[in-house]
Amino acid sequence: MWPPRSQPLAGLAVFFILILCLLAGGARAEETAEPRLVNVGVYVSPPFVVSQSDGYSGMAIDLWEKVAGRLKVVSDYRQFQNYGELVDAVSKGAVDVAVTNLTITESRAKIVDFTHPWFDAGLRIMVPDNDGTSPSEVFGRLADSGHLRTYAWIAVCIFLATMFMTLFDRRFDMDFPTKWRDGLAESFYHVMSIATSGKTNRRNLFGWLGRAWQAMWMVCGIAIIAYLTSSIASVMTVAELSNEINSLADLRGKVVGVRAGSVSEAYVKKLYITTKPYDHIDEAAAALARDEVDAVVADSPVLEYFVFTHPDMHLKVIGNTFQPDKYGFAFTVGSPLTRPASIAVLAAQERGDLEAIRSRYFGFAP
Question: Does residue 60 form part of some domain?
Fold first, then answer.
C-alpha cells in the first residue's frame, strides 16, 4: 500500500523542482539580456544640451542618462536643428524620445507624450549692453530730422562771412595780411571765434557803429551754438529713448530674434511683433550684435547662461520672467517608456539628484 501513496508525492516534488528551475532560468536570462536601444533626439541648447567632440553633455543629458539607467536602456543620440524638427521626429516615430529643454504645451501634448516636468522656466529678453548711442545713428537721425540741411546752410553763411570780412579788412585795415591765404585764415578764425564762443579780438575800425555790428555778430554766434547744442542733444535723447528696451511692452515696432519652432516664437507672434527666426541662440545673439534685430526673446535660463559665458559680446538680460513654462522629456504617443521615465524623474527629484545636476550647471538650487 505504501508505494502507491509515495508516487504522487514524488511527482509533485518533481513538478515544483521543475518550476523553480524555470524561474531561475528566466531570471538568469533577464539578467543577461541586452539592454534596449532607444533612439534619442536632441537639440543643442546650452546648458541643457551641449555638443562635444565625444557626444553630448548638459543638464538635460545628465538627467536623461540617470533615467535611462533606471529604465535599463542604451541611448543612440541624433541631433536636430530646431525644436520644430525634433518634435516632428518624435511624433512620427523617427526617434523614441526628445531630450532638451522642451517646453510642455497643449499643442505639443496632442502629438507627443510628455513625462513629469523636471524644470521650471519662462521667457526673458536679451538686448545689447551699451551705455550710449553710436555716432552713425546720431548722424542718421540728424539727417532724418533735417538738422544736417540747416548745418549746411550755417556752413555756407560762415564761408560767406569769411569772404566778406576778408574783402572788408583788406580795404579798410592797413595792418591786415596782404596775402589772400593769410587773410582768409585770419578772417575764418574771427568768424569761428564768434560762432563758437561769441567773442573776438578783431579791431574796431568804425567806432560805435563798429561795436554795434560786432555785437550783432556775437548774438548770431551765440544763437548758432545754442541751435547746434540743442539739436544734437535732442536727437541723442530721442535715440536713447527709442532704443531703450526694458520690458515686453517696449518690443512694439521692433524686430525680435527667436529660435525657430520655439515657444518664444509662437508667443511673440501672438503679440503681432515682427520676429526673425534662428536655429540656435548663438546665431540670434550674433544677429543682435550686428543690429539685424533689436532684441532676442528666449528661455530665461538659456539667455542667462549665454550672457554669462559670452561676456565679450556685451549683452544683457532684462526685465522679469514672463510666460512661465515647464520642461519635460517627450516620447512617441503610446510609448511604454513614458510612465517609467516619469517615475524615474520623480525619483531623481525626491533623492536630490535633480537638484545636484541643476546646481552643477547653474550654481544654485531651485
Answer: yes
CA distances from 336 to 65, 329, 340 (A): 18, 14, 8
Identify whether 101 is part of a domain.
yes
Query: Which long-range contacts does 285-289 make (Cβ < 8 Å, 24+ apart)?
Result: 285/126, 285/310, 285/313, 285/315, 287/257, 288/126, 288/127, 288/128, 288/257, 288/315, 289/128, 289/313, 289/314, 289/315
* Residue pLDDT, tens place only, 279-312: 999 999 999 999 999 999 999 999 999 999 999 9
Q: Say how many domains are in the chain.
A: 3
Query: For the whole model, what pTM was predicted?
Result: 0.64
Same domain, 257 and 316: yes
Residue type, 263: V
- Compute the C-alpha angle 168/173/175, nearest 5°: 135
pLDDT of residue 199: 61
Torsion of CA 322, 324, 327, 330, to 10 degrees: -100
